[in-house]
Amino acid sequence: MAAFLLGAVLLIVQPQIVPSRPAINTKAETSSQSVQRDLLKKTSQKNDFKENIHSNGSCQQLPHTIIIGVRKGGTRALLEMLSLHPDIAAAENEVHFFDWEDHYRNGLQWYINQMPFSYSHQITVEKTPAYFTSPKVPERVYNMNQSMRLLLILRDPSERVLSDYTQVFYNHMQKHKPYPSIEQFLVKDGELNVDYKAINRSLYYIHMQNWLKYFPLDHIHIVDGDKLIKDPFPEVEKVERFLKLSPQINASNFYFNKTKGFYCLRDSGRERCLHESKGRAHPQIDTRLLEKLHEYFHEPNKKFFELVGRTFDWH
């Protein structure tokens, strides 16, 4: 009976209308631009940078490419797979330079200091999944490097919402803290709660519009996160071509681990898998509610497909 009532109250749920361009607060934007100009003026000259040079000849440098998102889209898996290539030098941790004000105020010298040591022929990569959904980030990245090549990994929006919830749920469980059921987040006053942050992060169309204001589509390579999970090699091959890397990664670098239920990596005889926190089972959810989630994303997904000129096998 409860399931029937839940289905009844969710009969009509429509996505919010997405504006073609976000409204602009001129005063706020002018202030933001002023701050950015001061930041760039502070650290834009090459001679302003203090080069941290290692005794082996490597040094820290600004990233040549950034994995901008999306959260719970497979960014860690993508970075680990890319790291198989000898010409990739990857930052170990999420830097959060462009989206955290305390970090951004430190300037580009601080940003460089967070990068790994690399050689001149290598591509330095950093990943911070929150960049994709942070409104200020595209302009800030553009002001640093207009020719930056960006990697964006996406998966089925509904599945991403469930994975988003699952991560936070387990974080609370590990700290022995209670956490509400996913239904309590997805349903509000008998309707789909479109204010739930995890749902907003899956509205790829809105966030992609913001990035395309500053970067052309051919500077943003979209990795199909669902395909990367099922068959990683073809997706990694495409990334190699996008970054103009020599083809060094091959199918033998990947093997399916039946115990874990996903692909692991093999590099020079050494095998490694992603952390146990990856690939966790999603919570059980009422079928009608899941269908409403699929319906909600249907129109935004269509707009996203039109925006990027390709389709994905999403619900």
From TrEMBL:
GO terms for cellular component: Golgi lumen. Its main location: Golgi. The active site is at residue 72. Residues 1-20 form the signal peptide. Pfam families: Sulfotransfer_1. Residues 63-302 form the Sulfotransferase domain. This is Sulfotransferase. It comes from Buceros rhinoceros silvestris. The lineage of its organism: Eukaryota, Metazoa, Chordata, Craniata, Vertebrata.
